Amino acid sequence: MHASGEGRDRQLRRSRQALLSRVALALLLLCGARLLQAAPVCAADPRAAAAVAHLRALLAQARFITYEPTSLQVIEGRVQSADASSIRADLEVLRRRFDALITYDAIHGAEQIAPIAAALHYRALIIGVWNPLDERERSQALATAARYPRLVAGLSLGNEMIFTHRADAAALAAALKALRAQRPQLPLSISEPFHIFESAAGAALLPQLDFLLVNVHPLFQPWFASATDATAAQFVVNVADDLAQRYCGPILIKESGLPSGPPEHAGLSAARQASFYKELRARLPPTSARAFAYFSAFDAPWRTQDVTGVPGPHPEEAYWGLYDAARRPKAAVEQLAPLEQDRAGRNTN
After folding, report:
1. 17 with 53, same domain?
2. CA atoms of 235 and 263, how far apart (whole Å)
């Protein structure tokens, strides 16, 4: 009995040693796989380094919101340009709680945004170029950046151009190269849904980007209907974490949030919009590496007829604003502390 017990002990020790060897081999292979994983892509142009450092500081300190003028409308491809008096009224309302803007267009009245924002002491403006293949619009964006170098923190070439098939990666790469040659010190980016940057086409553009502008919408995920606001907010954080493994520059979530309607859509309301942003603020506090912008400034009823990358009606597109179309604040705004300003309108906090 004793001899057979010793035999069993020796067999057990050999089994344990074999198991530990297999575990060690598995861990070694896992570590090796991680070491072999591609390192995050970093923009390498040193000419924009100082401006990118400034942009990082803005991510940590400023409060961004995406902005389209309330007087702008685009219906069936016809553009009703924004007017300066309406833009001023918009920006005066926003300035109480926001000090950094991300726009979508550089023309159609948007030429007036920078001078008015400068006069109201906004800290930053990222200029959107709706059609980066249009040399006239690119030139206008560059001219505005040159005229207001302390305000303009970067350019965003298009919004969901690849996703909506309005341009391919090669065309955007050419536009980035052309702008870089004209103003190499100006930070450049594109704006796409997060999954585009996970694709081969989007990943190929990462080395040309000084910062990343990403759209992350829990609303359009298949699990959203049964999700809590905490789950929806954590999804945005998880996407940001994943992108940081792919890209080492500053990441700004340009679009994320919930619309406050339409009323007939079960589960969408101003209260839920506010709840989502409360959860997102708790999970994604701004740092120099990543932050999020509030999306968007004002409701836009005309956007129910807007063209998106997904076929079919989209009545929710009218309700993304933190303010309604008459510039009245919703619950999400009322949760935000006003930005303290001195008599000249500059932030003091």
Report:
1. no
2. 25
